[in-house]
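Input:
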Amino acid sequence: MTDSAVEKVTVLAGGISHERDVSLRSGRRVVDSLVANGIEVDLRDPDASLLGHLTATRPDVVWPALHGASGEDGALRGLLEALDIPFVGSSAAAARLAWDKPTAKELAHRAGVRTPRGITLSHDAFRELGAAGVLAAIADEHPVPVVVKPARGGSAQGVTVVESVDQLPRAMVDAYTYCDDVIVEQKITGTEVAVGVIDTGDGPSALPAVEIVPRSGFYGFEARYNAGETTFFTPARLGAGAQEAVAETAVTVHRALGLRHLSRVDLIVDAAGTPWFLEVNVLPGLTETSLVPMALDAAGFELGMVYAALAEKAVRDHR
Amino acid sequence: MTDKGTNLDPWYDSYADRTAGLSASEVRALFAVASRPEVVSLAGGMPFVSALPRELVTGAIDRVMSQDGGAMALQYGSGQGTPAIREHIMQIMAMEGIRGSADDVVVTTGSQQALDLVTRLFVNPGDVVLAESPSYVGALGVFKAYQADVAHVATDGEGLVPEALRETIAAVRSQGRTIKFLYTIPNFHNPAGVTLTWARRLEILEICRDAGILVLEDNPYGLLYFDQPAPQAMRSVDDEGVIYLGSFSKTLAPGFRVGWALAPHAIREKLILANESATLSPNSFGQFVITEYLDQADWRGQIESFRGLYRERRDAMLSALGEYLPSLSWTVPDGGFFVWVTLPDELDSKAMLPRAVKELVAYTPGTAFFADGGGRQNIRLSFCYPTSESIRTGVARLATVVNGELDLLSTFQGARLGSSRSVRTGVSMPPPNLS
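Output:
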């Protein structure tokens, strides 16, 4: 990498979000891959000294491996833009759109992508309108099974699959504990897949879809971060048409939200082979059990090379 | 990729049954945030080692290394521990009324390992261990690892309830189950903060003697009393029916990882062999340094200093609870590290944790201290590590968390919440209703 524009990368990982632990794991994996590729890496847990440090050290690129709020909500990215420091991943504005799941769903829908019907409600809405009436209306309009999840956040924290109406209040409470806005959406039955989208200079392209088959039946936190709890099929066991459809859908979402460099689009493919958009991550997990590294590996990419290429793309895009 | 897909742990199906539960969890992940300086952690039970004068430790280390270049301290040692430290341990235990022989002491890698060794010696899969309700999370983990079933015994403000012990023993035995021992933390209980009265100690020993049940007395906090010493150790009146566990982790520093077991002769022999099997020998360097420290430093004065520090922090926590969360109830510990808080019926301490993380305060949900799913209505607050000022800040944030959660629950269950909410005011100590 001696002829590369990127010699020094600052990886940001940790933070104070609910996903701190996941972020630290992602950050360490990114560091290992970049170092193996000959790049000098400075791993930092953001704190009050961060902005001064970045201003003083002026890394070639910052890699925000911060999951959850501040890392994915665009705040930190906005500051990096203000500091005029290149960084890997989507712009602050695009990250904000993707971070808010209802917004992302709406933008995907406008781009012609199917997404489960749902409703987003604040805690205040329940407080003002009365829980019993609102819950009854939800149950009428969105019959179980439904998925209840925080409108912002990741790693399936606070997510419940509600199979009967009496589970709905508890599921709402659990989701509101993470976020003041909660989505209740139709549960689509089908094949759960995650599609990485990568752009190192030739435009966004989809990686092989990773099919997710959790032993417990639910791809929750434990299934995500305990090796062996989930079986993955890469590429997903889909027909050729569906394979093509998920790839096209993922790239469509990536473009519709104005994302760049790297994203992961989570989809369910129904029995007819139609992909349904669930959510998109501007900072996909990069841990040892994460899906994008798995897809890159399946596609024949070497992680260190790809990450280095993404860092270089970030520098080029910044110019 | 194969037709069977990719499983990221190819050995997934090879693990022993006892590893069930050794997995990453959402709650554990949330605890990662507690290490951030912005977060006031009332969760961990870490002693405040910064209060230990560094020169006391460095002086001891220097002396150890100046004796034959530290050759002994850097070498493997006896599986029982050095004679010198075992003599010191006898002096320490004498402060709690224990008399005996240093030959019956086995030094271990913290008392946690002694707990593991005792369980290894006695427990077959499916055996029953009796434990207080709630009990130390680290002990429950050990019992689970050896596939024991834990039968919790009711506890109140005076510690384990003897009548409940009788009933539990009878109930377990009526099912044809085998009870291997009673695990108890009589002093400044972790997590409940309560202390077993002298009368109850005698009664419980009698019950266990009559029932042929060994007592495992775990006493890491006994010397850290605030106002008056705890009653004497159970081991002080029963040489044969009690295994006593002690530790330097709270009275000196946990980094040395030196604890011990004092056991009846026959058990002692097996403990030494099990210890050698597990670790060859306990930490030699730590034993030598601690021995030097005990020889040369005013360690009794240092413990007194710790008492003053923790007393001040306990007072700060109780004061803050009274000010910010007067409607809750909590224990008032006479020593140790922990206050056990009882939440209103509607709240779930585990489900509330994400909100606490958002508010930059961490606690340990009560569910950690039960093997049977109990504890949702409780949280353990530690006052040992944060400063008094931080404790006040942390409890104020906790009040925001509790009130936010109550507000949320009232939205969904308003009428029921309003009618069942238990209001008790002040810092007078209502015993935790842990049964």
